Amino acid sequence: MNKRQRKKYRLGEFQELGFELGFCTPADWSDDEQLDFWDAAIAQIEALGLAIGGGTGTCWDVYVSSLAERGTVSPAQRDALLDWLAAQPGVSDVRAGPLEDAWHDGAPVRTPAA
After folding, report:
1. Which UniProt keywords apply (predicted)?
2. Most buried of 27, 37, 63, 81 (most Cβ within 10 A)?
C-alpha cells in the first residue's frame, strides 16, 4: 500500500488511536451538580485536545478520540484525563481500555520507531 492509501485509510504512520472510558456519577446529584460536572469535564476534555461520544445516565461508557481532524490520543492525554476524573468528588468506578485503533476494529497498534 502506498503512502497516499495509508493516509486515506488511516493506516501505518497515519494510524489514529482512541480508547474506551467508563465512570459513574452519583444518582443523587441535582441537575445543577450534573451541569457543573459536565461543564468542567468538557472544558478539561477539550483542553486536552480530546473528544468523547457515548451513553448517558449515572454510569457512562464513552469512546475518547482526538479532537483534531487527523490526530491520535497519546498515552499522556489518556493518563491526564483518567487522573482528572479520579480526582473529581463523587466520580467513581473510573476505568479505561488500552489505546486502540480508532478506525479499524482489532487492528494492531503501531509503535512509532524511536
Report:
1. Plasmid
2. 81
> Looking at residue 60, which CATH number applies to its domain?
3.30.70.100
CA-based nearest residue to 81, from 21, 36, 37: 21
DSSP state of 95: E
**Domain residues for 32?**
10-101
Domain annotation covers residue 2: no
Q: What CA–CA distance (Å, rounded) separates 18 from 66?
A: 7
Hey, what's the cell of 31? 441537575
**Can you tell me the distance from the alpha carbon of 82 to that of 91, in angstroms, rounded to the nearest whole number?**
11
Residue 77 is classified by DSSP as H
What is the per-residue pLDDT across 64-90, written as a single tens digit (0 to 9) for each? 999 999 999 999 999 999 999 999 999
- The closest alpha carbon to 33, from 100, 109, 90, 107, belongs to 90
Give the pTM.
0.88
Integer angstrom CA distances of residue 96 from 19, 23, 24, 33, 110 = 7, 9, 12, 24, 19
